[in-house]
Amino acid sequence: METVILEVCNISKSFSQPDKSRLMVLDGLSMCIAKNSITAVTGASGSGKSTLLHLMGGLDSPDQGDILLDGKSILSFNRKEQTVYRNRRVGFVFQFHYLMPELNVRENVAFPFLMHEFNKEAAFEKAEKILTDVGLKDKLDYMPYQLSGGERQRAAIARGLINSPDILLADEPTGNLDWKTGENVFFVFKELVKERQLTAVVVTHNEELSKMSDECFHLHAGQIVKTQRGPDSL
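RE: above sequence
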């Protein structure tokens, strides 16, 4: 039986509009994320995919409903617990790499670790290990502008892993890449998640990549309209 690590319970989220009306983005959505799995979330633009990911990551709060981590509400966390959750329990990978142009690859990946562990030697050692795992062993001292698009995204994945999170949240991690490069990056992503026994939630518009996940939730108008199991789960 699968163990649920993250549970979304009847959450709704709306945003104010210029005319003072409210735009409902998520409307009573519920879902369970199995531990040590890769879950894809698909849907058209505006269906609520990124909003859902931000709520899971504690970057925003729902208007109603709850989000449970190992059965405990993340909405009940105090400020210290919220910081630990966002910085240690969860890792983030976005569509755009957001690497700092003034830092080399090693420094970019080590940066989140240095923010809470002021040990440069340990941070660099850990960054080098992860960068080797994503195939960037020979690019440690390169600046971001010297990397290809796929290499920059692999560096971003490494940065998301530096604090050894339990959950990796990825928002269109291949959306800014051509199909072949995106496929290669996703394979690297999938292998790292499986090897490290992580839980990953991936927002993607790419139906082919979603089929490589263990489970796929399809959103429409802020609700789940379809759930599919991936080939590895059959």
